[in-house]
Amino acid sequence: MYDVAILSDLRHPGGNSASIVAEVRAQAAAGLTTVLVHVPSPRLRHVRPFESRVVACLRDGLADLADDDDEIDARVLLIRRPGAFTIDPPAVRAGHTIAVLDQLPGDFGEVREHVERRFGPLVVWAPVNARVREEVLRVAPGIALPETDWHEIIDVAEWRHERRPHSTVPVLGWHSGPDAGECPDTPDVRVRLLGGGESFREFLGTLDFFVHFPDPVRAPAGRSVLEAMASGVPVIAAPHLRSALAEAAVYTHPAGVRDLALRLHQDRPAYEALAARARSFVTEQFGSASHLARLASLGVLPRAAVPSPRTEMQPSARPARRVLLVGDDIARFRAVARRLPADIEPVVVAGSAGLPAAHAAGLLTEYLPSAADLGAPENRWAGFVRDRLRHLIELYGPRAVLVGGVPHDGIVAAVEENEGPRWLWLRAAMWRRGAGGQWAARGALFSGILEPGEFAAGGDEGWTTTARAGVSTVDPITELPRKPRRRTAENTLLCRGVVASLPGFTVAEARPGELGGIAVAVSRADYTNFHELIGARVPTVFVPDPDGADDELARARFAAAAGVAICATTDDEAAAALERLADPAAREALARRCAELSFGNGAGDAAAWLAGHCRERSGTGVRSAR
């Protein structure tokens, strides 16, 4: 049961994502749990990743991301941009459902019917401001609206920045609009327009005043005005905004902007008083507390003391560094990406098999087709990989590229052509004896090599055991929670890569955080399943794949020798082992042994290692390793 579920297209840029992120951060600071439910809108026709601020919230653990087939229960469901959905969104059971309207859909009647058919007739339609409220009542006069608007909120602490030195000439940031051509560009006043790839935060940091003259038929106070006030930049606004902003701004017509700005700029006490009034106004009217108050009115009460604006939770900084994670090792990529510092943004570059799992984690993704996908011979595909990675490096400017899997010819060509980023290798251990040795020499290509740990390292006879000079190692990397717990489990059977049944047991699915509720499992002994199931203390029968890329048989036999699992190499052995684990006493013995031989999670150490390389300068040089 989540406190709040937010359903929206998480790719939308601009105000929609800003509002979602502000509410998620306010809820997390108050100890409330949030789940984000992504529903793609057909209006975003081009392939686009989740908005970067939404990704940061997911990466920082402030919210969970619902899978497509999840059944979600929440105390409150917020639907944002309900007019964008033409398909049925996932079912969410909620005590209160609020459809937030930041603008009136042109086909409001159809939208309302669609949403209420899916979520019931008790959906509350909540306009964000007076203008939208008037439009809704105009097209649906009989609709019952809440007394107060579901106005957007702003994390005031996020926008606080160091005060600019008092300049000799006031700098005015003019909001683009119908009057932008009337900027008072004179020798005693400097005017700036936002542009050139500059973020709004950076733009505000250069200003003495923010000038806002929107079209009178638009919303009375745009988010940009609130952000300027929160950052300490006084606002000069059009007179029709007085009813919304009161004494938090000063008002004039475009022709009067220059004189008003000069007068306030010269009267420093009046300038400082205006900035203070504006910040207090935003804090009281649009701060996190106002959002928590409306949730409280719906029965969702904070579980933690809400910090004051001065100590409010600091959000992730705007990512200053990026790292490309190349390959289909998605489980380990996700585990590491979630623990990267907020100023490092990961981008997963994977094939069609890996992209859905990376998308589900809210990560930025880029497609790298395999040779089979392209129907190309290996030598031509190597050239394609080189060119594709060159383009992505030019696009994202990463500090580092982490290669998962093997450094095939396409990777070699890309390394030799792109010396800007640091090239790193996430190298697997536990190779089958006599296999994979051809990759050893290619380790010289990389500035760093990281080898995730193996619980079954004592049974490892692969080539990496004699090639660890200069290689960094960490504990096994998994997506398990920090403290996996066993719960009183129903008779559930988890099958991973193996088809099986057990009388009296129901076949179930489980993500890493849900493994504690699984009674028994039967699985392949690949890296991810092996370490997740043992780490979560799930009584397991491992059925190794003799043709697997790594030595699954050695893993399964080691686990059996250690008493943490059962190894079965035939169907009859697997059936007998599962029948044995139908006994609760046998399951408890395996779970207890797993707890005795527990291992740590190396994902945090791996993230710290990767972050260290992202902060170092490149220029180590590249040696040929063909």
Automatic annotation (TrEMBL):
<protein>
    <recommendedName>
        <fullName>Glycosyl transferase family 1</fullName>
    </recommendedName>
</protein>
